[in-house]
Structures are given as C-alpha cells and as structure tokens.
Amino acid sequence: MKLSHRLSSLANMTSSHYDHIWDCCCDHGLLGTELLNRQLTKQVHFVDIVPELMQQLEQKLSHFYPITPHTESHWQVHCLDVAELPLDSFKGQHLIVIAGIGGNLMTQMVAGIINAHPSLTLDFLLCSVNNVAKLRAMLNANHCQLIDEQLISENRRYYELLYVRRPATNLVKQTLAPLISLFGDKIWQSHCAEQSVVIERYLKNMLIHYRKTANSKSAMDISLYEGYQHIADSLQLASEV
What is the CATH T-level fold of the domain 5-186, as seen in this structure? Predict the structure, then answer.
C-alpha cells in the first residue's frame, strides 16, 4: 500500500542506526512496515493497545514476513499501553515513533516513556494532529534535543514532524546540542515558493486559533499567541489574519 505524504515524510526522516524501532499507534502498522521494508533497523516493534488490531496486523506480518527456524525475526507485535514499552528488555539504541493521535495524548505518552526510562537515551519521531505547542513545551522541559523537524501539508491539514533525542539523565549536562524550541526553527525556513505558502498558511492558522483561545485569559495561550506573532513579525507576514 502506498504511504501517504505524511507517513512517507516520517519514514524519510528516519536514520538507519537503530537496533529497535517502536511503531506506536501509527496507522495500523503502515509506517513500521515501510521501515521494515527499508531494513533500517534490526527489529521493528508494532505497538497498540487494541487486541483486534494487533491480531490482524500479526496475521499480515506472518504472511508477508514469515518467521522460520532458518530466518531471523525482524519484527514483533506488542499489545500493550505505549507508556509501558519494555525498552529495558531490548539492548541497543531505540527510536519510538508515534503519529496520528492528538497532541495532548501524545504528550502524556511521551512523558510517561521518558519518566519510566531515565537511564536510557531515547529518540522520538512524532507527528501529532493538534496541540503541537504543548507537546513541544513538554519535550523542551525534558531536555529533548532537536535532530530534525519539518512542516508539511496533506489534505488541507498541516503537520509538524518532530525528530528529537532525550539523553539519559546522567548525560543531560554533557551534551551541547540545542533543545527543541517552543515554536520551531527549521519549520519556518523555506527553499521554494510552495513551502513558503505552506508556512504562511500554517502560521496564520495558528495565530487565528491562539488569538481566540487567548481571550480566555489563559497564560499559556496568551504566551503561545505572542510567540507565533513574533514569528510572523520576523517573517514579515501580515499580523492581521
């Protein structure tokens, strides 16, 4: 099955030095299957809490990627809560991919994983469908370093793709890489006219949203509106939206 622009963009961001990639709640395993096809890791772990989905996925994987006594398994299926990933049971470098869910739930999931594994350096590839600013704030507060980020448009919706690293607790003070920013850096940089249009439309959407929510006098929403307005000013976009 052909991947969507969003999922193919996530796949293209992924590097190949991981021992384990965890595909969590990502469109019925489509992204994890693509990473399996690209042989970017020793093993892809497919994770979801819905038993029926995981049973169906396991049947498909067994058909297309059969495990025999003479072949090494490159995939596993786990039916469990994402916050309970058994990372300590698998040695090596981990990449945890979560996409296609809301930012609030994603923030809870990632924070839970980070808190459960303070001694591990973990990479995350994330794409929420909303509330990305709150996700960024949590990642920044947990010393997550930016590896890469992209802004894409698909079916008239906009997505921030975030690729970050959370160093093990004992390594936080030893690393000099920049933390992920609260509002984004690379996503506002354009190298073509088409991407410039995506940036402008996305930024105007964010300003409209947070200008409305800022009326509730929420300190966070007011701060977010001011932050996105500062970006608009720096890009010389019109402030009236």
Answer: Rossmann fold (3.40.50)
